[in-house]
Amino acid sequence: MAKYLAQIVLVGMQVVGQAFARALRQEFAARQAVAGARESSAGSRSAAAFSISGISLQEAQRILNVSKLNPEEIQKNYEHLFKVNHKSMGGSFYLQSKVVRAKERLDDELQIQSPPQEQEAERKPDT
User: What are the start and end residues of every segment in region (Disordered) (predicted)?
Assistant: First the structure.
């Protein structure tokens, strides 16, 4: 009996160790991507958006199934995926939250890439 318990504990430790190593590799790769993106000013703002949202631009595009940063397409896909993943439709709150985070990340990226004049016009209402 003790032998089987020891084997179960050993296998469990191996699984946890492998998962931990994989998580470290992913974190290291993400840190390298952020460091590489910091080379340009737009890249640093994009890296800041990544560090705040915790989701990369590519991952956000995959979640919302968009290849280019087109606001209309992003909004259309967001609304569809948000509705489909609603709990009343048998969806998952986790998936719905991923959809929301992806939309936020793409909105941040659109704001970063828009020219400064457009950003100023958005901030100051016409009087």
Answer: 106-127
